[in-house]
């Protein structure tokens, strides 16, 4: 018996477990099974009201199950799970892209305000009234957001949630300060603005940043230990250096213990080397031993040890994080499963229930995809999805389903002559000869550009008439593009990342040609991007493909790490602006050892005016954009001591603390970035090594076949329960089957491979152990999570629940 | 039956396999078993001559087995195994610490010659006659060494051995050049001197350096791939930068494509940042985007990728190397085993045979230790060591055996009162309170020194009278040292590395005190070492102990990596001296952009003489010591472009190639050093994590008990076969047993844990697979190694073999 022939309607069933948002008290708890089973039983009186209530029950369960699954996906802890109907309403309000967007925009507004506040970017300067009012407005929005969150979580959970509490405190401080600014009509020293980043960090969309921050904080303890070792050696060497070199009066670096310490700190970043050594070296050549030993110990040994320790901690944390996420998802699935199973069929979830769930979980998924997802979950092709099958929910739900095409090429339906032409082009563009010919063209083009640029005399970069070589190469690329698009079909052509890259580079080159031809000077920079074509050559070698693929895989994580760094930058920029804005200017630091770097002299030698520019006065904290550039220069650490000494000479020597702390913070973040790249790369390499024999790695693909009868029964189900419009995509499938005279149709589900998939394969054996351990620990995990399960059922506000849902 | 009661004499046995150095043809190959078994058989005629010949056979076998084991230990390939008696003599001559030392000294002499040659260190300058003669002498010694090696290996093997061939070629070139120098009486451009390092690399004692070089070369291919990626992006950005910034005439960095490339290369090392950005940044603030993007891609992404790729390759190579070493040792043991097994007892090696082997393998091991090693190998306490047991040879042979002391403390034998006093001291120094009190003293001392140094006005560092704090703290340390030595006994006290450290630091402090008290100024630097005491505080935390232990474990490898780096330095120093010696001097580079750094002006401002020193002229290649310092500065990479530009402005712009190649080479070596530290550290961490439950890691310890009867039978064996003097240590053991009235005695074998032991435990499971694979591949590995086994037996020079051994 094929399972889909069973009547798919069981709205008279009732769930095993009831949603915590249900308001009607479950009076006949013990006997409910029998009563519902026998729907016409007189005990319940009105059959229709019974059925309506059951349907309402189910809707509630679907929604709560969807929420559990969402929590599992987002790694939201279950103790923030909405506990009653009121909380549910708030939850739905808060978990919503519009709300997320509002959060993000408010946070960005608050951050961007520092462009216009006191030491503002000149062209963006705003009056105090205006920016303070804007700030107040944004803060009020944040208050609104927080109050909605409190409504969702309830007061006690809200208090327990650390991040939200910190946010509330910051909010309060900001509020008070914004009002003070408005009242006094002048900006005071507002270092607390540095805390504004917390609004951004708390955004739903910045989950990756939060994860990074957590990982940074988790890596801190071992990091600090090694840092202390580093500082300790620094102190010992500072004392040594002071004793050894302070008798040399031409040595400004070791004349006091403080100088000695500061200069050894700078030496750790090597940015004053060899200058710091020179005065003593010129006196006694053997003094270089001191510096060589110091650098060998500190820079080449302990700094690498630091990286090793962080890398080690990092890989460990990555694994533990993967484990906890995996188990969290599993628990979420268990919760959802309990809510979806009906009393009549406690062994699994039927398609009806699954459909109801997906209506809440992914409202925009079409009926065909829902059904395919259900089939993909349902591994042994029965009517019900068991818990074991349901555990694959997250892996399956992300698949994008497409009918497997019967046609090999896009031109298969064309008339014979056209077909042959296109087939010829297809064979041509897929041939090795064509590919290598193109590589040769690219290489020649590259060498051409190089020689051309080398031969250029300065001045006449952009000739009035377009050079013929430009046109020739562009024509070749254009023809290639045309051939590939026609030979492969536009969809297949653009589905490869490399082709997309070719396409955009060629497009840019064409735009550059237009810019040259029509003399549009501001667009000349496009011409300059031509050498990027050369990147195509890297397809040739397997290692490069690997590296570039890894690069693309790493990109989202790298971007989030970059954002994390930017958040630190922001805080430091605000502090820097408050303390150091306007302190450096041309010829400012004549008393310091780095005066030369700030000198700006306009003097006459003979009859020529010579401008001596030290330029370093440009590395200032005069507005937030300048601060960011200055902080980037500090991150690169070369010559950062010039900036530090310049500022120090204009303020107090405590300013050095700011620069040193910044160095240590960026060192932490940078070390973690390095550790992350190392970890990701080594992980991928090990993965490749482990799966050497298996197929090329091109994402997860699943194949499912659907027969006509099956489709019809699904349509029947939809027709009975929902609006006719929803069956449209299903009808289309049937129409297609009719057209090609098939009795069944193949669908392919596809998604790209994520890190989690790789980890699943890498830790295959351990995962089983984790599962066993997990299930031993909590035989009934839902009881652990809600120790007061029975209480919740009655905790809802009865009179309002009806209107909310 | 206890096995040692068997008569230990079986000199009438004959080995299963005969040494390849044996000269008498084995005429009765098929029936030899029976004949030898029945020693009195009339077929052989003279019984005594038979026995003498058998003993001679055995001696030969022992020696060849010992050579196999040595080859296994040193990872010498078996194709260099001496094949006949003449080769054996050469082998024994060459494998000998005196010969090794000669090799080393010759190599060092050749290397050190560059201190005295042409651009010599002033005080070491020698006449051309003298140093050329010295060189010729050293080269002649090398010729002698090589001829001995050729004698050992035979001509064909010699030709096949790549390293030796390269060495021979270099030797030839050096010889010709040395003679040319002597004839012309002037040094020509001798860049080939850079190849002198090969003599050092080829030394037996520099095995670790050879391994490093091999590992560097093996890591090169992936390294070069990523390097090309790096250079490729550099070229693209150079073209971009040239187009964008060359219109700015105040920007000297991008005015030609060559400058653009060079400056981006330097920017990769960040050493001209932010200066390289400043001219364009001052014109248009948005130009910083170019530099930020470049640095993000090149420095923060691809450079880290480089590290990741090297790290990955490195860990892979480490594992493969461990595997091949392990299997090589195993094969060596199999070879040796075959030579030691007798025809009468083919299932194992008896002590007599083992003793014979050890006489060649470790001549200085005493009889007691030999016997204990045999017992340790012999795991199931039978008379014979089977092949399976014999596989542990290398693990066991390194153990140092000591009788397990019956006394807990050194003072147990003292009279009651003294015992109580010492016992009290012992308890005191082992108490936590005492330890923490000492930590407090050290900490207070550290803070004291810091404050004292901070309060110092310059000038009066070393007061005429010794400060009281110095005396107080030194007294405390002295008392601690005294208490510990008396409480623990000097041997136990000094067996801990930490105590040794305490001891030496306290000794230094005492010497410093003497220096102060007797006003010996040249020794004042000892006073300065006092803060090293603070290192003791790091015992407090487990992580530091771990880190410092790892540091000590890594030290030999680090030293060999450092030596490898020095060898590269040497080559570059020679090349640098040949091309750039004397090109930079004060005020030399006025035409370059870095003129300031070389300026040395002595001018008068008002009525004060101001010396403006650029100092960079000190970073030159004027002699080999200066070159080394300059190269170290180039390694640190900060401001290296100043050195490069200075030299370039005085020579040609091709000089930049030298500096860039040096940068890339040091980058390779440094990346490998980082990868090595990472690998070693992560490996150790994983090991610790894997063995979390097990005991503290304090080396390998084995316990063996020897009874009196057993000892007596061993003595009997020695008395019959060897001189009476050899039984002395055994007799002493018996005497000791008698003294304490024991019937048996416990011995402890101890050695420190090596990386190989850790690897053995880490790869436990895989090792079994390797073994199986190995034994499948070569059922009889000795047949593979010597395909012409039968030939060798007759290849010896018969008439000489007798005299050689």
Outline the structure in words:
The structure is a homodimer of 805-residue chains. The first copy, chain A, is mainly α and 805 residues long. The first copy, chain A, has helices at 32-37, 47-74, 85-94, 97-116, 128-153, 155-160, 162-184, 197-201, 207-245, 257-268, 278-283, 288-340, 351-361, 367-377, 387-390, 393-397, 416-430, 432-455, 468-488, 490-494, 497-517, 524-528, 542-580, 595-598, 624-636, 640-650, 655-690, 708-721, 728-739, 755-762, 764-777, 781-785, 789-793, 798-804, and strands spanning 400-403, 600-605, 608-613, 700-707, 744-751. In chain A, strands 1-5-4 form a three-stranded antiparallel sheet. The longest helix of chain A has 53 residues, at 288-340. Residues 1-11, 24-45 and 780-805 of chain A have low confidence and may be disordered. At the A-B interface, helix 9, helix 11, helix 12, helix 18 and helix 22 of A face helix 9, helix 11, helix 12, helix 18 and helix 22 of B.
Keywords:
homodimer, 805 residues, mainly alpha, three-stranded antiparallel sheet, two-stranded antiparallel ribbon, 34 helices, 65% helix, 4% strand, disordered C terminus, Ion_trans_dom (chains A, B), calcium (chains A, B), Volt_channel_dom_sf (chains A, B), calcium channel activity (chains A, B), endosome (chains A, B)
């Amino acid at each position: 018996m094929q399972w889909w022939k069973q009547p798919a309607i069981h709205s008279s069933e009732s769930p095993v477990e009831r949603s915590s948002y249900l308001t009607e008290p479950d009076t006949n708890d013990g006997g409910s099974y029998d009563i519902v089973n026998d729907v016409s039983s007189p005990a319940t009186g009105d059959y229709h009201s019974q059925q309506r209530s059951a349907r309402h029950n189910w809707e509630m369960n679907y929604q709560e199950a969807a929420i559990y699954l969402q929590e599992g996906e987002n790694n939201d802890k279950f103790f923030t799970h909405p506990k009653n109907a009121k909380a549910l309403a708030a939850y739905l309000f808060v978990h919503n892209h519009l709300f997320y967007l509002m959060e993000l925009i408010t946070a960005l507004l608050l951050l961007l305000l520092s462009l216009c506040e006191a030491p503002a970017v000149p062209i963006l300067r705003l009056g105090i009234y205006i920016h303070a009012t804007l700030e107040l407005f944004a803060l009020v929005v944040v208050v609104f957001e927080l109050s909605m969150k409190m409504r969702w979580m309830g007061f006690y959970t809200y208090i327990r949630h650390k991040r939200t509490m910190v946010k509330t405190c910051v909010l309060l401080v900001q509020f008070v300060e914004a009002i003070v600014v408005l009242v006094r009509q002048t900006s005071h020293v507002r270092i607390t603005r540095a805390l504004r980043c917390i609004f951004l960090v708390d955004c739903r969309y910045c989950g990756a940043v939060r994860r990074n921050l957590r990982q940074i904080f988790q890596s801190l303890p071992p990091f600090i230990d090694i840092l202390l070792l580093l500082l300790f050696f620094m102190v010992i060497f500072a004392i040594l250096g002071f004793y050894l070199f302070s008798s040399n009066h031409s040595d400004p670096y070791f004349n006091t213990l403080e100088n000695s310490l500061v200069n050894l700190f700078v030496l750790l970043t090597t940015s004053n080397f060899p200058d710091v050594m020179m005065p003593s070296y010129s006196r006694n050549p053997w003094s270089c031993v001191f510096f060589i030993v110091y650098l060998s110990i500190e820079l080449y040994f302990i700094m690498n040890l630091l990286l090793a320790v962080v890398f080690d901690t990092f890989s460990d944390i990555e694994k533990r994080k993967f484990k906890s996420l995996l188990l969290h998802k599993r628990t979420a699935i268990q919760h959802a499963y309990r809510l979806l199973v009906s009393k009549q069929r406690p062994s699994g979830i039927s398609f009806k229930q699954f459909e109801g769930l997906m209506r809440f979980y992914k409202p925009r998924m079409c009926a065909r995809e829902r059904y395919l997802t259900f089939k993909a979950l349902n591994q042994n092709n029965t009517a019900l999805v068991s818990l074991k099958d349901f555990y694959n929910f997250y892996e399956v739900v992300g698949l994008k389903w497409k009918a497997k095409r019967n046609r090999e090429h896009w031109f298969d339906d064309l008339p014979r002559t056209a077909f042959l032409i296109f087939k010829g082009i297809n064979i041509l563009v897929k041939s090795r000869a064509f590919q290598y010919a193109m590589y040769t063209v690219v290489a020649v083009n590259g060498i051409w550009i190089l020689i051309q640029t080398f031969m250029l005399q300065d001045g006449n970069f952009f000739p009035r008439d377009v050079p013929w070589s430009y046109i020739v190469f562009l024509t070749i690329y254009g023809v290639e593009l045309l051939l590939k698009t026609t030979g492969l079909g536009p969809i297949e052509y653009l589905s490869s990342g490399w082709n997309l890259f070719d396409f955009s580079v060629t497009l840019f080159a064409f735009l550059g040609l237009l810019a040259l031809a029509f003399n549009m000077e501001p667009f000349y920079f496009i011409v300059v991007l031509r050498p990027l074509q050369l990147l195509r050559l890297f397809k040739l070698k397997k290692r490069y493909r690997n590296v570039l693929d890894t690069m693309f895989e790493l990109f989202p994580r790298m971007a989030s790490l970059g954002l994390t760094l930017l958040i630190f930058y922001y805080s430091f920029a605000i502090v820097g602006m408050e303390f150091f804005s306007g302190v450096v200017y041309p010829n400012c630091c004549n008393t310091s050892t780095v005066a030369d770097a700030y000198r700006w002299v306009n003097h006459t030698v003979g009859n020529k005016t010579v401008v001596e520019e030290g330029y370093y006065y440009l590395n200032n904290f005069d507005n937030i954009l300048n601060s960011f550039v200055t902080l980037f220069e500090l991150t690169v650490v070369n010559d950062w001591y010039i900036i530090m000494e310049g500022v120090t000479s204009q303020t107090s020597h405590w300013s050095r603390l700011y620069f040193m702390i910044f160095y240590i913070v960026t060192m932490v973040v940078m070390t973690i970035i390095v550790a992350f790249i190392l970890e990701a790369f080594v992980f991928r390499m090990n993965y490749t090594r482990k799966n050497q024999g298996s197929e090329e790695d091109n994402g997860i693909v699943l194949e499912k076949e659907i027969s006509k009868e099956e489709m019809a029964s699904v349509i029947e189900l939809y027709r009975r329960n929902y609006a006719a419009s929803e069956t449209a995509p299903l009808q289309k499938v049937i129409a297609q089957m009719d057209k090609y005279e098939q009795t069944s149709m193949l669908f392919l589900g596809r998604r790209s491979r994520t890190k989690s998939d790789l980890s699943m394969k890498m830790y295959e054996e351990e995962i089983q152990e984790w599962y066993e351990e997990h299930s031993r620990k909590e035989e009934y995990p839902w009881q652990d999570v809600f120790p007061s399960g029975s209480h919740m059922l009655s905790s809802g506000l009865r009179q309002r629940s009806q209107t909310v849902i």
